[in-house]
Amino acid sequence: MVYKIRTRDEHFSNDGTPKRILALDGGGLRGIVTLAFLAEIESMLRARHGGAESFRLSHYFDLIAGTSTGSIIAAALARGMTIAEITQKYLDLGRRVFQKSWLRQGYFRAFYNEAGLIEELKQVYGANTALGDASLQTGVLIVTKRLDTGSAWPISNNPRGQYYATRPDSQVIANSNYPLWQVVRASTAAPRFFDPEKIEINRGKPGETPVVGEFVDGGLSPFNNPALQALMYVTLDGYRVGWPTGADKLLVVSVGTGSADPAMAPAKLAVEHAVKSLFSLMDDCAALVETLLQWMSASRTARVIDREAGDLRQDLIAAAPLIHYQRYNVALTRASLADLGLKFDDPKVAELSAMDAPDNMTTLQEIGARAAKRQVRGEDFPADFDLRP
Known about the structure:
Blueprint lengths: L7 H5 L6 E6 L6 H18 L8 H4 L2 E5 L1 H10 L4 H15 L16 H12 L13 E8 L4 E6 L23 H8 L9 E6 L8 E7 L9 H9 L14 E6 L3 E2 L9 H26 L1 E2 L24 E6 L2 E2 L1 H6 L6 H7 L8 H15 L14
Parallel strand pairs: 1-2, 1-7, 2-3, 7-10, 8-11, 9-10
Antiparallel strand pairs: 3-4, 3-6, 5-6
Helix pairs in contact: 2-5, 2-12, 4-7, 5-6, 6-7
C-alpha cells in the first residue's frame, strides 16, 4: 500500500481528516516495557501499510506525547527513528546513566549526575536540534512541570501555538527555539534521581534579569500518563490545534511502563512513607486519567476501574463516544506475570518495579513483549485511521 508521507504542518493541520495520538507514560527505565509494546504496534501497522522497511510510527501518528521517560521515546519517534533503533539507544542510555555512586548517597544530593543524561540526549537528538527543527517529522508534545510556578507545562512543536514562534517586541523565548534535548531533560528531571533543569524563558529587557524556569519531571503533574493532556491540547481552543472529536475522527493510543505492585516493599521509615505517598498520588492521577478517557470513548481495551464502576463501556459522558481509545499496559504483580508464563518470587517482583535498575531491563523487555503479543490487535486500529495515498 502506497501512502502519503505528511509534513509536520500537515500532521497538525485541522483539515477534517481522522487524527491519531500516541501517548507514552513516565516510569524511569521501565520505559523498556513501552518500547516492547511499540515494537508490536509498529510491526502490525507496517504490515497493514505495505510492509516496507521505510514505514515509521511518525508517518502514522499526528501527535506523539510523552512524559518523563516517555518524552525520550516520543522525541526519538518524532525524528523518524524505528523502535529497534530507539530500543538500542535506550538500553545503552540506561546502562551508562544509571550507575550508582557512594559519592551521591544521602538526602541532599540527586542519585545521578545529569551530565551523563544530557550527553546521551544530545547524541540521540543532536546538540543543536531545536523543538522547531525540521527533523521532527510529526507533532510532539513534551509534558514537564515548572516547579517555581507550580504549573504543568505541555511544550509542543505546534506551529500555530501561542508561544511557538518569536513575537515582535517580546523578550519571551519562542518554544521553537528551545533545545530539544533540554525540553526532554526537563521532563525527565525526577526529584531524588536528577536535579531540576533550568530553562531561560524570557531574556528580559536591557538591564533586567532574565526569567529562568526551574523544571522537574512531568510525572509530578497530573499527567504522568499524558493521554488526557494530549487530548486537551488538540481540542481546547487555547492551544490552537482544533481537531474534531468522534470515535471515527480521533484515535488515542496510550502505552504504559508497567504498573508497580503497591503491596510490595512496605515503607519502614518516615522518608520512605513520604516517597511512597507521592507515588500513590501519581497512581491516583493515572487511574483518574484512565477513568476519564474510558468514560468518553469507545475502547476494546477498557479495563475494570473497580468492581462497582465496572469498565464504563455502558457509561458515556456524551451522547456518542468522543474518541476511539486504546490503552496498553501490564501489571507487575506476581499473578499477572504468572499469567504471562513468567514465575518470580516476591523479592524479584518488588525489584522489577524500580525505575532506576538497568539490570532489570532485559526482563522487563520480555514482560512487555509477552504482554504486547497478547494485547495488541489489528482491530484496535480501525480502518478509518489507515493512512491514505
